[in-house]
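Dear Dr. H.,

I hope your travels went smoothly. While you were away I took the liberty of generating a structure for the chain from your last submission, since the lab meeting agenda had it listed for discussion. I wanted you to have the full record in hand beforehand rather than looking at slides cold. The sequence, exactly as received, is reproduced here:
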Amino acid sequence: QVQLVESGGGLVQPGGSLRLSCLASGFTFSMYAANWYRQAPGKERELVARIGSAGGSTNYADSVKGRFTISRDNARNMVYLQMNNLKPEDTAVYYCRLFNFWGQGTQVIVSS
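The corresponding predicted structure, in token form, is as follows:
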């Protein structure tokens, strides 16, 4: 069956880095653009970054431009989100999405 499994979240100090991963299975991964969303407590889920099916085009929310990088490895059915210079406002549950498929999310907490 279709599965998206995120990993890599955790607690990090402001200015630190994390790399999130999303492993996909059960469908033709390389056909779809991939997205990372996040949802902070009390806020709506928002799109953070998007990458085209072949990895050639990327888009970012203004709040993360220059700090986050999305990438993918179609041979491994993986999507990544490298997050640098993390800020407390980046604290959220981060979700991977392809087409209508969502992962369960991974928690990121940025705090000193």
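Two observations you may find useful: The chain has a mean pLDDT of 96. The CA atoms of residues 23 and 78 lie 5 Å apart.

With kind regards,
E. W.
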